[in-house]
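ARCHIVE CARD
SHELF: 3
SLOT: left
DATA:
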Amino acid sequence: MVKYLKEAFWASPHMPGLGQVPVNALAVAAFGIFGFAESWIWLVGLGLETAYLYACFTSERFRRLVDAKELVLESAEATKKKTELVASLTPPRRDRLRRLEARCGRILQSYRQTNVDSAIAEANEVTLKQIAAFYLRLLLVEQNLAELEAETTEPSLRKQIETLESALKETTLSESGRESKAATLHILEKRLANLSRGRAVMDEVCSDLQRLEAKVELALENARMARGTEIIATEIDMNRPFLEDNLSDFTLGAENTEQNG
């Protein structure tokens, strides 16, 4: 409700030579100023403004326009965010994403060429968008894990841990020195655990990437063989703990754009 009233109040149609002008806001200001000379002008202004806002709020067409404008802004923000995320990928991963998106595009093209039922085509288009967004997130996780693996080696961490454990056995070590080394040891043990968990997650991510690629290839084959009447299922849980990051906004934005397009 508030967003419709706000949009109606600040409505700014394009005026030749002036650009976007907040006509309603200026009219309210004018009534407010002239009302100091004649108080009845305030009552007229209040009545006109109330009627105007009520007419806008109850207009289905006006609400649709506001909603459409909001979706366009969300879509633009999602596109911007996706562009930034894709740019952060290494060239090989970026090419891998583009190949998958190209295959998704060919599936939709096949649907149009074979006159697949519109409801099924639209449902599959939403699914393909979700797959592409999830695929991007997986590539980013894979890239981060690969960088972690390259920067930190297990033998190096274990050697540092053994050195600290030996140092902590020294009886001549001061209390403050012992506390410092114990804290460092605790940190290194956590890093070692992260490294181990990272390898397990990497295996899971690589498996998911391959499954999504296979899923898209199967959908493309079905579409080419005029069997595109099947609903595409991802069969992959897209809410993994290691994917709970700021990419969720981007994915949601892509889904909302498709569902409301």
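SLOT: right
DATA:
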Amino acid sequence: MKLVQLIFVEGTQCTLPSKNMSHSQNYITINNPNIEVLCPEKRDFPLGEFIPSPLDDNNRFDSTAVNVHMQDMYLPNFSLRMYQGETGQNAMLVNKDSVGTDLPGSCIFLKGKIKSFTGSTEVVESFNSSQNFKFDPHNELEHFIPAARPFHYLHLSFTFEYFNQIIPECESWGDYLREKIQKKERILGDHFAPLALAQERAIQNILDCPLSGKLGLLMMETSIIQILLLQMHLLFSKVSTVGHRVSRRDLEMAHHLKEYLSKSFLDDHSLANLAMEFGTNTNKLMQVFKKLFGKSIFDYLAELRMEHARQLLREQKLRVVEVARTVGYKNPNHFSTAFKRRYGYIPSEVR
């Protein structure tokens, strides 16, 4: 027997079969078309800046039911939509207008939880700091968001013609994606890959670009290309996916550890204490962290401490010996050597 979901679309009650959810819940729907990639003659607003999304006008709900802020950004070859907020009721994201179904898209989930469905089948579930790739030419996908769960999502759209230019010829997954898109067959990764550290830096370049004008646009577009290439590799490269997946429990542990370290990087950590804190053994802790983030726990701590040191030198004008001591170096010469190895110049040159 199939369970039935009740969904309210613009005040009209309809049903959605599901084997995974309780039939006793009600849902609201939020229109969620892909953001279009506009040709130059249609753009009458500045590129590379977030502007209010027209979807804010199309989704009229009581603020207790939906408190979501949507913004759009247009670039020469990409378009980006950002969602932030939370829903007071369970909600479904659906593309009611079938807009942008011909566009491949990159989904980035900085915060929150979401489940993707085709019809009555749950496809995949995501949570914080994860990503997926989708192509939905027949408008089959729907996405469930639980109530009272703050979220922050980014969706990138681009044309197949441009995407085809940046897919490396040497990668087998490139042929796979080209063929699927040309045949108009749906693409959705069967798991959500964690965001790599390089992708997180690239996302920051988009959300808070340090450059303006043409240089800023170029920096944002190259950052998007970095995100996409890493995403394709993580999701579709057989070498990186077969037999090397991380369980959801270990994935959550690694992200909690990363967040914990980002707040306590000046503390004197040991692997034994961290393993005890996160309820695992030291080998698993090291292996999972390295597999997900591409560097060891202590390399990550060193990176955070050096960036903090550079900030102290730049903003607080502290002496090198004081900064060295703050970030854990007893010998300032050792600190200067490590600093130069990382940034290419000695600490005293920062000022």
